[in-house]
Amino acid sequence: MHTLVKEERRLKLVLRISGVVYLVVGFAFVLAPVPILQGINLTSDWLNLGLPLAPLTVEKFWLSLAFSMMMTIATLCYLGQRNVRQSGYVIALLISKTSSALSGLAFFLFSAHYLAYLAIFLVDGSIFWITLYFFLQAQRVFFATQTAMLRQPPPAPESTGPTKVVALTGEDKFELLDRVLEQAGFWQIIEDHFRKSGLARQDFSVVVKPNFMFMHSKKDSTSYTDPELVEAFIDRMVARGFTKVFLVEAQSTYGNYYNNREVAKVAAYVGYTGKNYRIVDLTEEMEPYDYGPPLGQHYVGPTWRDADFRISFAKNKTHVFCHYTLTLKNIYGTLPMQNKLKEYHTKREYDWPTIESLKKFPVHFGLIDAFVSADGPFGVILCTDPKRTKTIIGGENLLAVDWVGAKKMGLNPDDPKVGRYLPLAVGAFGKPEIIWEGDQSVYHPWENVNEPLLQFLDVVEEAYAFSNWWFASLTAMDEYFTVKKLAWPIILMRKILAPVKRWYYLYDYLGV
Predict the structure, then answer these.
(1) How big is the CA angle at 427 (ends 424 and 433), to the nearest 5 degrees?
(2) How far apart (Å, rounded) are the C-alpha atoms in residues 94 and 400?
(3) CA distance 257 to 262
(4) DSSP one-letter string for 27-96
(5) Disulfide engineering: 163 pairs with which of 116, 213, 432, 471, CB 3.0-4.6 Å?
(6) Cβ of 433: how many Cβ atoms within 10 Å?
(7) Residue 167 backbone class (left: φ over 0; alpha: ψ -120 to 50; beta: rest)
(8) Who's near 234: CB < 8 A, 6+ residues apart?
């Protein structure tokens, strides 16, 4: 359960008080309608307003409907205070108060100048503005935590000192990998951690997190970290005596719509053999873990939690939600809950839980497979025009590695609105002084995500029912990942969109 901030707690209190008031007043309307009108008329006389007195009616038809409305509003307040981030309840309440206030004013102006009509406008109008004020305050906090729209740059971060990032370009991916590991000092880094652990070499656990759970077809190699590179990397570690190696991923939202999306099945399908290492599904092994505020009680995969040395081996891709996905975003894939759209896009947000995880389970080295890359607005999902960028990037500090990776995409990684993960990571861990060795050119040709689309999706994703429906309709897989039984509106939309999707999903089965 998410932790409410001060503004959201205030809105929760306002809704609780309002709910009780509506409940009491609703029953007062039913049990004592005439005394209420008499009281308003006496008040009008006492104030000497010169207004006519409202007739005392005993007719119950409209009173019954008013009682129904008050019970509905009290229920909205109750539901709203249970989850103040579900804004629909408060919006319905605001619409109700707007309608009653404006209708009361209209009756006063154009029907009869009764104080009772004016009281409706004054009381319900005041309730509208009070509720709106606290609602907007809470929503401002919501947008600041759930989107990047209102985020400000962190205060001047402390320097964490110099760190080296190596970016090399060449024709042979295995030679590039070896050169990057050597120049970035990887072998010395892992040896230092091993010596500090006090463990026997065969007991020192190394966990490698590649990126492959968002792949849709093995013919589109831009959507996952190259298994040949990952296995070559693991073979080199095993040859040096680090034999306790795990390859980890967690299940993704694709499991909502398609079969065979468990980690082991996807890994085997794209070419991971399990030779010299064990493949672990963090979703299947997850256990409760207390991260402390703000993430609180959540889950973690024990293999990731208990590792002695962690490595992020990312794929070089643009991302429609956060500009790019590199070594920091790759760690998001260790958050173990399967329905990530619901758990990490709607209930929480995907960036800050990742940073909270990194605080508890630091990653010791980062690599970017940029030998073949995916650009464009939907590079994270698919790429119809793969870019042969022929690059591998590596370094000890993930923030520095991502900074270099973003610069090579032609982005400004120091902009707090760019990248989502990097600005939060700088605020949490400090800013490294980057020593950039190797190729410093920008990828060309290269297309980044346009801002209007990114900001639009940043907000739309918060409405889970809508975003889940559209994601189910827009995605596609090759035939190995058969479609699950889906609701008929999704099936219909998939059929309608199939002709358009054929332009983009070149290798996939588009039926249902």
Answers:
(1) 105
(2) 47
(3) 12
(4) HHHHH-HHHHHHHHHHHHHHTT--PPPPP-----HHHHHHHHHHHHHHHHHHHHHH-TT-HHHHHHHHHH
(5) 432
(6) 11
(7) beta
(8) 208, 245, 247, 276, 277
Q: Give yes or no for a contact between 119 and 104, defined as CB atoms under 8 angstroms apart.
A: yes
Sole residue written with tokens 């989107």: 147
Distance CA 62, CA 98 (A): 19
- Mapped onto helix, strand or coil, the DSSP state of residue 303 is helix
Rounded CA gap, 228 and 212, in Å?
Answer: 13
Euclidean distance between CA atoms 494 and 497, whole angstroms:
5
H-helix segments, 171-290 = 173-183, 186-197, 227-239, 263-270
Tens digits of residue pLDDT in 433-491: 999 999 999 999 999 999 888 888 887 787 788 889 989 999 999 999 999 999 988 99
Report all structural domains of the chain as residue ranges with CATH numbers, in order of start.
6-146 (no CATH), 159-448 (3.40.50)
Give DSSP secondary structure letters for 378-413.
TTTT--SS-B---EEEEES-HHHHHHHHHHHTT--T
Give 436 or 156, the one with higher predicted confidence: 436
Q: Which pTM value belongs to this model?
A: 0.78
Give the orientation angle of helix 6-31 with respect to helix 87-110, to 10 degrees: 50
| Sign of the dihedral defined by the CA atoms of residues 245, 251, 252, 254, in that order | positive
Average pLDDT, the chain: 91
Q: How far apart are CA 382 and CA 152, in angstroms?
A: 31
> What is the Cα Rg of the chain in Å?
29
User: To which residue do tokens 């918060």 refer?
Assistant: 462
* Six token digits for residue 153: 């740059």
Q: What are phi and psi for residue 147, nearest 5 degrees?
A: -135, 175
For 223, phi and psi rounded to 5 degrees? -95, 5
Nearest-angstrom CA–CA distance, 115 and 277: 80
Give the tokens for residue 24.
Answer: 């009491």
H/E stretch holding 166: strand 159-169
